[in-house]
Structures are given as structure tokens and as C-alpha cells.
Amino acid sequence: MAARAPTPAEIERASVLRRELAGHDYRYYVLDQPTVSDAEYDSLFRELEALEREHPGLVTADSPTQRVGGHARTEFAPVRHRVPMLSIRTETDTTIAGAQAFDVRIRRDLGLLDGAPAVEYIAELKFDGLAISLRYEAGRLAVAATRGDGEVGEDVTRNVRTIATIPHRLATRTPPPVIEVRGEVYMARADFDALNAEQDRQGEKRFINPRNTAAGAVRQLDPAITARRPLRFFAYGLGEFDGYTPPATQAGLLQELASWGIPVNEDWRVVHGPAALAEFYAAIEARRDALPFGIDGVVYKVNRLDLQDLLGFVTREPRWAVAHKFPAEEATTQVLAIEVQVGRTGAITPIARLAPVFVGGATITNATLHNEDEIRRKDIRTGDWVVVRRAGDVIPEVVRTVPERRPAGAKPFAMPARCPECGSAIVREEGEAVARCSGGLVCPAQRRQALLHFASRHAMDIDGLGDRLVEQLIAGGKVATVADLYRLTPEDLAALERMGEKSAANVVAAIGASRNTTLARFIFALGIRHVGEATARDLARHFGDLAPLQRATIDELLEVPDVGPVLAESIRDFFAEAHNREVIRGLLRAGVRWTPGTPSPRTAGALAGQTFVLTGTLPTLARDAAKALLEAAGATVAGSVSKKTTCVVAGADAGSKLERARALGIRVIDENGLRALLAGEGEHT
Ligand code: IVH
Question: Which of 402, 136, 123 is nearest to 282 (CA)?
């Protein structure tokens, strides 16, 4: 099919993209102050590439697709790279397809037939820092240069000499007359955090991230400032060399560089074929957050240097290497609104509603803003473009705004005066970071949270009482306090939308079963501010029953291990509140009971996933009875001891099973131990 002429819209779009990308290149490479995330940049870049591929006539000589991003800063003397410092192609498909696509291209470019053996690759980390070329002449560091536009970089020798781990002299008696070592200058996470802690102490501005801080430090005009920044270096390749024969492979080269005292990261692996590359990718991604420095992916290279030469380069990239990136942990998006959420204790958390953005492997639409001070510190406003971050399973947060993109008229955030859920006043006490709704259990949001907490697994453990049901119960006026739960009938529940008769009966049964609980669980379930599970257990053990705890003075509370003044006051205030005492009376009237001192039986499923073995004769329990009790608690009872056994219950005349348990270091208990375990005393240890 003949190429279609570009439409005016496409011509316009290509020019807009070129201009935007050039601006981003300038802010990233020259100012070290990017205003968009890598992912956003990549997507613009790919859009332009696609347009140009479809309409080669749109390619201009100065298109960002035709060159490497940077320009040398004029304050530094220019250094011409005799072997250009290029970039590498980025594979953005973050699955095995990324590794496969690379392998397919390599096999095609090497002219390998289908049956030919797997290609040998080296997989390395992709360090997130600043590319540097170190020129050693007769073994001495002569010139250090940035990449610049790939052809001409900046002479940063004086700055780089201050980096402790870069040797001024190669540790070999026979250094090549000329060799350029290429690699990445970076800042370790711990060093970055320490640097920011120091900035805080000095009342100075915090640094944004390790990459920009490292890049900015190398490109300081005053080497004394560079010297104060804790920079490091990893080598990953060569530039020009003379009078030197490199090893046959990239792996051999890395080893040789390391032997000369040049820092080389050890997390590289030589592998064959695409599946092994993908395996490396997955293994590194799993360890990503635990690495002491930032990486944004891995790099695959053809290991043999002669094959690299054979493959050569396309315009700006070598054919023999590819960067396989991880899903971005940071992305840029817009704040659509700032709303507040009310927690169980009335704490108000401001939340940013975001234009949906894909970050760290998921699409996010909300990010926590923590509290009012935090919003003020970061000056986040509705309409702002912000960098959001999502690492692992943590709640996404806003890292910073992009001031250059703030819309005109954006107003600073103001904490609402009234709770959006109940209209009660929002108050913020002297010295507290958190504002609270003063509505207490009048506030449906607090009621909802209080009910969910009460029913949660480590509190009263009521199965089936989730978000939606609680919401419906409150909206329908069926429950106001936790005590009301015990008055619910299967009919009440079955009347709710999307609730079958059977599940209604199950929930009512689960509520009923929760009447028998432990004192520790009950205290925790009340949701007293600052009283977590551990404190609830301490209080249960110390006071033995609820009545003495309710009556306790501050001084008496302070006698409990780990209870300090804030906690003591919170407990006293809770029980001083008439409304709370009424709820407790309601629970007692509803038949909620705990056994003072000895906790009541564990709820079903408490031993789920655990395997027990019974052996010998127990003093009072028949074997079948012991088995039934264990199974009722969710445990599996097995006939023989293996490494998978959790615990062996041994009675009189126990034989080989007991011996084997001891040999394997498996826990052994007697009948009393079993009873204690079933009674939930395991929780009290
Ligand atoms: S090899 C011919 N290996 O990522 C270019 N680069 O866009 C060969 N980088 O400019 C580069 N870790 O600054 C290579 N293990 C690694 C790397 C790495 C980080 C940087 C490098 C390069 C950029 C690619």
C-alpha cells in the first residue's frame, strides 16, 4: 500500500511533540529538573516515533528521535567523545514479551535459523543515575565527561575526582595506554536519606530524588559542593581504547574492570535465550525495593563483543542491547479534587482524587495527602500536576507538584470547617497534626469504621460483615452502635439488597457466635484510641475483667507495662464518656461474654493451615475427641510427622513419632498445652 500523506493534524501533532520533547530533554539533561515522569516522556517519544515511521517525510534533522537528549552546559569545557555515548532502546512491555521481542530481533539480525541454539546474553541492572565516561591514560584518570548530546559532553573531571569510589589510578601494573570506562554515577538510597535529614537540620530545601541529586551534584560548578554529596559509580562498558585487547565477552570485561579497582555491580548474570532473561527480570524486580540504590529496569546485552560489533548501531542505539524497564513507580497526573475522609476515631485524612494514571503496575485514582501540614509543606492544590508514587502495596502518595504546570488561579487547600459526613465541627487540637470530626458516633463515617473494626478478624471476628453490608445497615437505620448488631434477625438482613436468605442466616449466626470472646478481643474491639491488639492483651491480663479497667484511674493505668500518659488518658476518656458506657451495657445485655482470666475458646479456623500429629495416650481426651477439636479449629490432623508438621501432641507411651518430631525440631505439647492452644492462649504469649 502506498504511504498516505500526513494530515494537517498529524503534521501539527509531530511539531508539538518535537517541541515538547525538546523542552523535556532540556529540563532533564541540562537543568536536571524534569517536569514529567520517564513513563510520560517515553509515551510522547513513542508517539512521535510512530508518526515518523508512518510518514518518514515528517522526520526533521533536529527531531528528538534523531539524537540523544542532552546538550552540554556552556559553563563546562566541551569534551568530544571519539566513540559516541549513545542511549539504548527501551522495551516497555513489562512481561516476558519484552525479553522475547529483543531475542527475536537479535536472532533475525544475526541471521539465525529457527533450529539454531539460544543466544548467549548478559543481563545487568539498569542503574538510575547519570552516564559518565572516565578516560584513563596510562592508568591515570585524565578526563571525566558527561554524555551531553552523545557527541560532545561536559568536562566534569574536577567534580568526578571527588567521588571516593572512582580510582584515580587503575590497580594494574600494565594499564592500557588509553581506555575510557563508561558507567553511571548514582546516589545510594541511605546516603540520599541522610543528605535530606541533614538538609532538614540546616533548614534547607529537601532534594527530590537520588537520580536528580546525583546528576545535579556532578554538574556543580564548585567541586567542593560535589565533594559533599555522597556519590558512587558503577561501570558497565567501554568507550575509546588504544593498545588494549578487551576480553571476548561483556562478562569478561566487567571482571577485568573490577580487577582494576573500578566499581562493578555484582548482580549480573550470563544466560541463554529469552526465558532466562525474563527470569532475571522477575528476580530483580522482586528485589527492587530491597536494593540499596535505585534502578529503573534491567539491561540485556549480547554477551560476545565480536557479535556486538557485528550487530552495530542504528541511529541512536546499539542493536545488541535493550533496556527492559520496570513499571514506573512514579508518574505524573492531575489533581481533580482534594476531599477529606473520616476515620474510626474521627481523624480527617485529606485525599487527592486524581486523573487515572498507571503507576507501579496498577491504575490509581486516589492518593493520600496525610494531613493539613503535609499539604501545606508540599503546596498541593486542586488542578495541580503532581508526581505520584506507588511502591509495593503501600498507599499511593503525592511526592511533589510540578509548579511549572500549575493552572492560573489554583487556590491553596483549606480544611473544611464541618465534617462532610455528619456536619459536625472539625477540630484540630493544639500540637496535633491531625484534625478530627467532633461528631463521635453521630457521624455515619465513624459509625461505619467503628462497626468494621468491631467485626474485624482480630477483634470480634464476625465473618461476612464487610464494607457493603455495614454501609447498608447504617443507611437503612438498622444499626447505630455495635450493640445493635446483636438484635439483627435473618429477616432484617434478607430484606437488604443482594442478600440471600442463606447468607443472611450465616451472618446472623456469625454475630451470635461472636458473643463468646476473650477479654482482650473485646477491649480491642471497643476501638479505644491508641489501643491496639497488644495493648488490649496487656490490659486484659493486668485487670482480669472489664469492671476494674473501667474504673481505673490514670495512676492505675500507668502501672500496666507499656502504658504511657497519652494511652492512659485516652482509655480514661473513653470510659468517662456516657455514650461509650451505654454501648458497653448494650453489649452485655445482648449476651456478649468473656471468661475473666481464662480466655474463651478460639473461633473456628484459628488453626487453619496448621498440621497436627497426635501420638500416645492423652490423660483425659480420647484421640478422636482431640482430633475433632483440632479440626473444628481448622487444623489438619495427620498420621505421620514430616517437615510440614506444625506441632505434635504427645501423651503417655509416645514412641517413634515423638522421636521424629524432636529430631526435626518440631514443637511438642501435652494435653494441657493443647487445651491452652484451643482456648486461644497462644494469643497471650
Ligand atoms: S549500556 C551504547 N548498561 O542507561 C550504550 N547502560 O538509555 C550502552 N545505564 O545511557 C549502555 N545501567 O547511562 C548500559 N547496565 C547498564 C546501564 C546503562 C544504566 C544507562 C546508561 C545509558 C542509559 C540507556
Answer: 123
Looking at residue 445, the DSSP 8-state letter turns out to be: H
Which residue minimizes the CA distance to atom 14 of ligand 1?
236
Domains and CATH numbers, the chain: 8-66 (1.10.287.610), 90-325 (3.30.470.30), 330-405 (2.40.50.140), 437-595 (1.10.150.20), 601-678 (3.40.50.10190)
| pLDDT value, residue 23 | 83
Q: Quick check: 130 and 156 in contact, CB under 8 A?
A: no
650-653 CB contacts, 8 Å cutoff, 24+ apart: 650/615, 650/616, 651/614, 651/615, 651/616, 651/617, 651/618, 651/619, 652/616, 652/617, 652/618, 652/619, 653/616, 653/617
Q: Is 89 in the pocket of ligand 1 (CB under 6 A)?
A: no
pLDDT at residue number 265: 97
Residue 609 region by backbone torsions, left for phi larger than 0, else alpha for psi between -120 and 50, else beta: left
Q: Is 132 in the pocket of ligand 1 (CB under 6 A)?
A: no
Task: Tell whether ligand 1 has an atom less than 6 A from the beta carbon of residue 122.
Answer: no
Is residue 596 pLDDT above 80, yes or no? no
- Residue 595 Ramachandran class (φ > 0 left, ψ -120 to 50 alpha, else beta): beta
* Ligand 1: centre distance to CA 29 (Å): 15
3-state secondary structure of 171: coil
For 395-416, the pLDDT digits (tens) are 888 989 999 899 999 999 999 9
Which residue has the least CA distance to atom 2 on ligand 1? 86
Contact residues for 439 (Cβ-Cβ < 8 A; gap 6+): 346, 419, 421, 422, 423, 424, 446
Q: What local confidence, expressed as pLDDT, does residue 345 receive?
A: 82
Question: What pLDDT digit, counting tens, does each position of 407-452 carry?
Answer: 999 999 999 999 998 888 899 888 888 899 988 777 888 889 899 9
CB 406 within 8 A of CB 385: yes
Phi (first) and psi of residue 216, to 5 degrees: -65, -35
pLDDT tens per residue across span 61-94: 677 776 555 555 567 899 999 999 988 998 878 7
| The 3-state secondary structure of 42-87, one letter per residue | HHHHHHHHHHHHHCHHHCCCCCHHHCCCCCCCCCCCEEECCCCCCC
Q: Which atom of ligand 1 is nearest to the CA of 317?
A: 2
Catalytic (active-site) positions: 126
Q: DSSP class of residue 164?
A: T
- Coil, strand, or helix at residue 352? strand
State mean pLDDT over 476-505. Answer: 89
- pLDDT tens-digit readout, 296-339: 899 999 999 999 999 998 877 899 999 999 887 888 999 999 99
The residues, any chain, with a CB within 8 Å of residue 3's CB and separated by 6 or more, are 54, 55, 56
Nine cell digits for residue 40 = 510520560
> Confidence class of residue 584 from pLDDT cuts 50, 70 and 90?
very high
pTM, full prediction: 0.56
CB atoms inside a 10 Å sphere around CB 69: 21
Best CA proximity match to 518, nearest among 596, 446, 403: 596
What gap in Å lies between CA 512 and CA 514, rounded to an integer? 5
Distance, CA of 647 to CA of 611 (rounded, Å): 7
87 Cα to the center of ligand 1, angstroms? 7
